[in-house]
Design goal:
The complex is a heterodimer. In chain A, strand 22 and strand 23 form a beta hairpin. Chain A is mainly β. Chain A folds into three domains: 106 residues, Immunoglobulin-like (Sandwich); 111 residues, Beta Complex (Ferric Hydroxamate Uptake Protein, Chain A, domain 1), CATH 2.170.130; 558 residues, Maltoporin, Chain A. Chain A has a 22-stranded antiparallel beta barrel. A five-stranded mixed β-sheet of chain A has the order 9-16-17-12-13. In chain A, strands 1, 4, 7 and 8 form a four-stranded mixed β-sheet that branches. Chain A has five helices and 51 strands. Chain B folds into two domains: 91 residues, Immunoglobulins (Immunoglobulin-like, Sandwich), CATH 2.60.40.10; 164 residues, no CATH class. Classes of the chains: A mainly beta, B mainly beta. At the A-B interface, helix 5, strand 24, strand 25, strand 44 and strand 45 of A face helix 1, strand 1, strand 2, strand 4 and helix 2 of B.
């Protein structure tokens, strides 16, 4: 590994030098590409140099740069849904050329499935990446009519969930904690409201959603399976505007506008549920059930070289049941970013963020009999990143990240008849660091590479006690054998990993290409969760002297083809992923407020493989996509299933979804979605035995996930009615009518077993039954009204 | 620590209203499995008859009577040097009847169970552990809350002895009937829920003190837990740690349906009986409890 690393480092250094030397006689044209109507920067817009038949795309901040030899050029700027803009430049000095694209009038009403260049599917070196824009997401028929980002990405190949309403999502056989969910670069540790039915992302404030499932570039790291990069809008910098809506669950309002014209803008978007108002008739007493979130962002452009962004999120779910019990949880994130142009070709972004997830639980009758418990995870990070635009076909990225973690596994105080017992666990601390380097280069017109390496490091530190555990039979609790005390920031254990990344694209012809990728990912924090759906009280815990970092290696191979002038876009991918050091649990593990949690953990390995097909129709009145995944995801853990491979709880052999949009006329548009998913595995007992009158289920074969619950399928439709358009009228509105699960199928979430209350007769023992839990028991109609002015 | 999942039940209730969540009893088939020997030896050190049952497991949905295992010879040897022989009273039920005032032992006595059946030898060992006295049973009228409908609710007061590693089974009887629902199963490790919580030497914590109230058959029932002149009896049984973990798994599995989308994986309760002959699995627990008790009339 070491020799390999040194070699590749050398190659990289040589490449950079040659690039810099070659670049001496070049000039650079650069700038920001924005939406001329709102001033929002456009991510992934194309700057294409006609003379060279080559170009570049704008980065996450809308910035592009083209380094070209002296000469005159025709540059075409384009972005789907906008009119192309053609600029002729005489390049004999560096120039800054900011571009404002205008909305294409003919396409305003059309759904744009991908917000990127028409042939990007085929031409870009990226693979295993899906992008959804808000216009698409907001047209997908949704549960209770709420536009939902996390539920929408589940319609993409390779993305699944353990069941309706479960928190999080699974990517290519990874568990939910293996997704790095970023909101303006800050990680969101629990992306759910109301257990898992709604995500924390307010659609009014989101600009762009990009999911990396494989071929993950080295600028990203820290999780095994995916990166979900959610970027917030900056806010209209041309004029004040308001938009909002009234739905079944949320009412929303967003305000955006310029603070200083063309220099600073802001957006404030809020949502609040009124489920408690609707549920009021079913409740008595002083009860509360609500959830809300607030998303804010502002930016200031100091000059053409410096821009500052400030974004924040605050969300909370509240459950209060009179005086006897209360439960609330939520995230907050805060990101400060500084974009700086060191020179024409070196773009830098420095981000500093804070992210927090925490919950509080209270039970109690009065001051002398109560139980208060809070827990969470906090982290602070600094992340400098640099992009060096060497030439239109050579780009270098490098940077690093430092993260300080504070894990609060539980501050719990019980007061029993005035006698206080503090059973809090000590906070745990960790420091994560990473350095990366990444080069995207076109070796020839047909061959492109994105290669890079990431070095990551994690130190588990004091202050606190660290334990060592002895041996136990496989699958049983391990006893503590010794303990040691550590000072603040004193190193308890440390781990590091070299994570090579590589993507290759071979262009076969104008409309097809094949791509291949490899990535190694390391993950130093783990979500401790043993339930079917993750609960809000599940906690993150660091890698320690007893828990090794999780590691994944993934290879993927794909064929990409566009048909009929990019009207149809096809991608076919296959992948194999191998995972090490996955966390599992002994039978009867105590995961909460357990000082000796590590003794209840097991270590396992995982493997996942599959084929993913996606066919999109991107143009015309009728658009949509078909997504199909054939996959297997398995685990092997000493002490579970007789140490043999078994399907993970979210293994789904077939996962098909068909999403279609149809624009009837300027006012009416329709959409539908059909999903079919193989039933997930479950463990059924084989036998029963009796003890003390209880009938106890027993699994004599000791197999895990030995049967499957029934297959899942569902059909949803929705219709959107645009208000009458009138150039004189500022107020624009639309209605969305939807029906979820239109044929009222009671899809199984899980099957559980129970004993009957009564013993039928003296000649029988207690009877037992299998019960299917369906989260959605019928069709769910919904209507929402949305406005903008 | 096992948290109080009531909080989820309430949250999920709202979803049930909005999404029409439902539970349907369905037919499923389970894999066949060979029967396994089951020993049921939950004994105590009181001067009264002690019964051990021998049965075997059967298919999960088979609700015929459990097959009794006849013809075993069963004896318990104590560290006090006494031998207790059990006689088969009825099929599969084996009884030891003490002479006047005799018992299996006192706190600290170690006991070994030996069973011989069908040329197989089963063995288990345990110890009679200490048990704290019950100071009082309190009763109080309470308004309707998350805990239940309005009415009198009870609590028992007792202090866990100093020193970690005690485990207890708190059994409540309403008018002489043992509260036997899975959600009424009340166990404690020291004064708290489990070893990881490290609550030692205190008065048992509230949820444990409060689990002396019957759980209604129907969640929406308005029936109060206790009515005037009801008789409540609370017993604390000292149990071994093995018995504690067995009951913990049993309770979590039998009440798993109440966890909704947050259900836990199926896991088998581990017993403490071993098969010396073939090393095959034998299910069940051998425990000898010391008992303290108190009773009260509801007024």
């Amino acid at each position: 590994m070491k020799i390999w690393f040194i070699k590749s480092a050398l190659v990289v250094v040589l490449m950079c030098f040659s690039a810099i030397i070659c670049a001496q006689s070049k000039y650079t044209v650069n700038g920001y590409i924005t939406d001329g109507n709102t001033g929002e920067t456009l991510i992934g817009a194309t700057a294409y140099v006609q003379e060279l038949d080559d170009g570049n795309i704008s980065n996450e901040y809308g910035f592009y740069a083209l380094s070209l030899p002296e000469g005159s050029y025709t540059i075409i700027f384009s972005y789907v849904g906008f009119d192309d803009q053609i600029e002729k430049v005489e390049l004999n000095a560096d120039i800054q050329l900011d571009i404002e694209l205008s909305l294409a009038p003919t396409e305003i009403e059309e759904v744009v499935v991908v917000s990127e260049a028409d042939d990007r599917n085929v031409k870009n070196v990226e693979m295993s990446v899906n992008k959804l824009n808000m216009a698409t997401i907001s047209k997908i028929p949704s549960l209770l009519g709420e536009v939902e980002i996390l539920r929408s990405i589940q319609l993409l190949p390779g993305v699944s969930t353990v069941g309706e309403g479960a928190s999080g999502f699974n990517v290519r056989g990874g568990s939910i904690d293996q997704n790095l969910v970023l909101l303006d670069e800050a990680p969101v540790y629990n992306s759910s409201h109301l257990f898992g039915f709604f995500s924390v992302f307010n659609p009014d404030a989101v600009k762009d959603v990009k999911l990396y499932k494989g071929g993950i570039p080295s600028r990203y790291g820290g999780r095994l399976s995916s990166i979900l990069d959610v970027r917030m809008r900056e806010g209209n910098n041309k004029k004040m505007s308001f938009n909002g809506g009234i739905g079944t669950i949320f009412s929303r309002l967003a305000v955006e506008g310029p603070l200083v014209k063309d220099k600073a803008s802001f957006i404030v978007a809020g949502r609040r549920s009124y489920i408690d108002v609707l549920a009021a008739p079913f409740l008595e007493g002083d009860n509360k059930l609500n959830f809300y979130d607030l998303t804010i962002k502002t930016n200031y452009k100091f000059d053409s070289k410096n821009q500052l962004f400030l974004s924040g999120y605050l969300g909370r779910d509240n459950f209060v049941f009179g005086e006897s019990a209360g439960f609330n949880w939520g995230n907050s994130t805060f990101t400060l970013r500084w974009n700086h142009l060191f020179n024409e070709r070196l773009f830098a972004n420095v981000s500093a963020y804070f992210s927090d997830y925490d919950y509080q639980l209270q039970f109690g009758e009065d001051a002398i009999n109560r139980f208060d418990w809070d827990a969470g995870i906090k982290n602070y990070s600094l992340k400098p990143s640099f992009t060096y635009f060497i030439s239109p076909n050579n780009m270098l990225r490098f940077g690093g990240q430092a993260i300080i973690y504070q894990f609060a596994p539980g501050n719990a105080v019980g007061v029993s008849v005035g006698e206080t017992s503090d059973i809090s666990l000590d906070d745990k601390y960790g420091i994560e660091g990473a350095l990366y380097f990444e080069n995207e280069i076109d070796i020839s017109p047909n061959l492109s590479l994105n290669y890079g390496i990431r070095y990551s490091l994690f130190n588990y530190t004091g202050e606190g006690l660290a334990y060592e555990y002895g041996q136990a039979p496989a699958g049983e609790r391990r006893p503590v054998t010794s303990e040691a005390s550590f000072d603040q920031w004193e190193k308890i254990s440390s781990a590091s990993n070299l994570e090579p990344r590589l993507s290759v694209k071979l262009q076969l012809n104008e409309s097809s290409s094949i791509k291949a990728s490899y990535n190694r990912m390391a993950q130093y924090i783990h979500l401790i969760s043993n339930t079917t759906a993750s609960t809000p009280v599940d906690l993150w815990t660091p890698s320690t002297n007893n828990i090794d970092p999780q590691i994944a290696d993934q290879i993927a191979l794909g064929y990409f083809r566009n048909f009929k002038d990019n009207t149809f876009v096809l991608s076919l991918e296959t992948y194999y992923k191998k995972m090490q050091n996955l966390v599992d649990y002994i039978d009867g593990a105590d995961l909460l407020l357990n000082e000796f949690l590590e003794g209840d953990l097991l270590v396992g390995e995982g493997r996942a493989y599959g084929v993913e097909l996606m066919v999109k129709k991107e143009k015309g009145k009728f658009t949509g996509w078909l997504s199909y995944t054939l996959a297997s995801t398995e685990r092997r853990v000493n002490g579970i299933n007789g140490n043999q491979w078994y399907p993970s709880r979210f293994d789904q052999t077939h996962n098909l979804s068909l999403t279609a949009f149809y624009d009837l006329n300027k006012r009416w548009s329709f959409s539908s979605n059909f999903s079919f998913i193989t039933g997930t595995p479950a463990t059924f007992p084989t036998s029963r035995f009796e003890q003390l009158g209880y009938v106890i289920p027993y699994n004599a074969s000791e197999t895990r996930n030995n049967v499957r619950i029934p297959d899942y399928h569902r059909f949803d439709i929705s219709a959107t009615l645009q208000g009458k358009k009138n150039a004189m009228r500022k107020w624009q509105s639309y209605w969305v009518f939807s029906v979820y699960n239109i044929y009222s199928r009671r899809n199984a979430f899980s099957i559980f077993f129970r004993q009957s209350e009564e013993i039928p007769s003296a000649l029988q023992s207690r009877s037992t039954e299998a019960v299917q839990l369906s989260v959605v028991g019928s069709f769910i109609p919904a209507v929402s009204y949305n406005f903008k002015f | 620590m096992k948290y109080n999942h009531n909080i989820y039940v309430w949250g999920l209730l709202f979803l049930a209203v909005i999404l029409n969540s439902c539970e349907d009893v369905i037919e499923v088939s389970t894999d066949p499995a060979e029967p396994i020997i089951v020993v049921e030896a939950w004994l105590d050190n009181e001067p009264r008859g002690q019964t051990i049952r021998l049965t075997q497991s059967q298919p999960y949905f088979d609700n015929s009577l459990f097959t009794p295992l006849s013809g075993a010879s069963i004896e318990i040897l104590s560290s006090d040097g006494k031998l207790f022989e059990f006689d088969e009273l009825s099929e599969g039920e084996y009884l030891w009847l003490p002479l006047q005032g005799d018992s299996l032992g006192s706190i600290g006595t170690s006991l070994e169970l030996n069973i011989e059946w069908d040329n197989r030898q089963f063995y288990a060992s345990t110890q009679i552990n200490r048990v704290p006295q019950i100071d009082s049973i309190a009763q109080e009228f309470e308004e309707e809350s998350i805990l239940g409908p309005e009415g009198v609710r009870t609590q028992f007061y007792s202090r866990d002895p100093m020193g970690t590693g005690d485990s207890f089974w708190i059994k409540t009887y309403k008018n002489g009937r043992f509260l036997d629902k899975p959600l009424e199963l009340n166990i404690a490790y020291d004064a708290g829920f489990d070893p990881g919580a490290r609550i030692d030497g205190l008065i048992f914590i509230t949820p444990i003190r409060d689990l002396t109230n019957p759980v209604a058959n129907d969640e929406n029932s308005d029936d109060p837990p206790w009515e005037k002149d009801d008789q409540i009896q609370v017993e604390i049984h000292s149990i071994s740690n093995e018995a504690f973990f067995f009951l913990e798994t049993l309770r979590d599995q039998l009440s798993n349906g109440d966890n909704g989308i947050f259900s836990i994986p199926l896991s088998n309760p581990r017993g403490n009986i071993v098969d010396l002959t073939s090393n095959e699995t034998v299910l069940g627990i051998f425990n000898v409890a010391a008992i303290s008790r108190a009773s009260e009339r509801i007024d």
